[in-house]
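Researcher: Predict the fold of Aminoacyl-tRNA deacylase.
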Amino acid sequence: MSVSATLEDCLRNKGSRYEILRHPHSHTSMDTAQAAHIPGDQLAKTVLLQDEFGYVATVLPSTYHVRLSEMRKRTGRHLILAGESGMRELFKDCELGAVPPVCTAYGMQTYLDESLMRQPDIYFEVGDHEQLIHMNIDQFLDLMAEAQTVQCAHRTW
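Model: Structure tokens for Aminoacyl-tRNA deacylase follow.
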């Protein structure tokens, strides 16, 4: 697989400047950071949450975990971590677990944790488990302009 068609359209429409970084196949965001030899704080991961009304996406550093209590307070919804079945249906052009952060392009409300905004460069999944996009923070924030910036995560280590 390669860059998801949805992400590719987003990048083209925004006129984004980026580079593709290839790395050995990985399964978790922390494994990806290690395999790609990049700082975990600069790898943006996408965590999907759901409730009876649908899905929302949170985008945070791979070294962080989502604070469900904060997302529940922020949205007024009883959100839980999304199951795999919904992810397959929503992100048909992505491998399971390799969701790019531009979930607004998939019609989903997206929340960007402000901790990513302190990084000079950002890396993120392209839709598969062997490539990342690398761009500077200004390009990333332009790409994520429709996302709502929040403080919704805490550092795991």
